[in-house]
Design goal:
The chain is mostly helical and 159 residues long. The protein contains six helices and two strands; from the N terminus they run ααααββαα. A two-stranded antiparallel ribbon has the order 1-2. A hairpin with a 2-residue loop joins strand 1 and strand 2.
């Protein structure tokens, strides 16, 4: 694996590289979902639930919907699919009997790790190939780009 090297200092090349990465990541998620027999949104939901479980944090259906930017009805449909396929369990929230807590099953964790494990290992190898200075630069750049695209400019004219 070769470490990341910008070929030019042209900002358009940087944006193009980001867009290529984004397209490759979306394609990977679709392929992973197909391999697991679920959709890309279902996979995003499972990964969110597994991260929460890793942090020993409970997730409600509403929190999952907020994370995925989905309506309550869409989350219910998603959870029905994932429950039926054996990927998630829903239990009543002891603090709010009107709400459910959602957890990924152990089999789902194994399936996600098996499907995405090699790709994660390749990503870690690329990240480890960076010098400390380059890693700090890339991390700062990506954080700044995230902030730049995470803002909706309500004053901008409609196109």
């Amino acid at each position: 694996m070769t470490p990341f090297r910008a070929l030019t200092g042209d900002p358009a090349d940087v944006i193009h590289a980001l867009l290529n990465y984004r397209a490759a990541e979306e394609s990977m998620r679709l392929r992973a979902g197909v391999a697991m027999g679920i959709g890309a949104t279902d996979l995003r939901a499972l990964r969110f639930l597994l991260r929460a479980q890793n942090d020993a944090r409970s997730v409600s259906g509403r929190e999952l919907g907020d994370h995925l930017s989905m309506s309550s009805a869409s989350v219910t449909s998603l959870l029905d699919r994932l429950t039926k396929s054996g990927h998630v369990l829903r239990t009543q929230d002891p603090a709010d009997r009107r709400s459910n807590l959602v957890t990924a099953t152990a089999d789902s964790d194994d399936e996600v790790r098996g499907t995405l494990g090699a790709m994660h290992a390749r990503m870690i190898a690329v990240a480890r190939s960076l010098s400390d200075e380059d890693a700090a630069l890339v991390t700062g750049f990506l954080a700044s780009m995230t902030a730049a695209v995470d803002v909706v400019d309500l004053a901008a004219p409609a196109v």
